[in-house]
Amino acid sequence: MGKKKKVDAGESTPRSNKRAMLEKEFLEDVFVPALEDQLKKAKRRLKQLEGKP
Prior knowledge:
Helices cover 92% and strands 0% of the residues. The chain is mostly helical.
């Protein structure tokens, strides 16, 4: 079983590299803007809370 895993890993190296690139693009295109949006909302909410008392 150990030998088979090594062969599989060797064969799929180009594919896993492509997948890593796709994941990186996904993080940059989707995840980061979503986090930035949440951060803006949180800052706005914080200002509201600070302004109330």
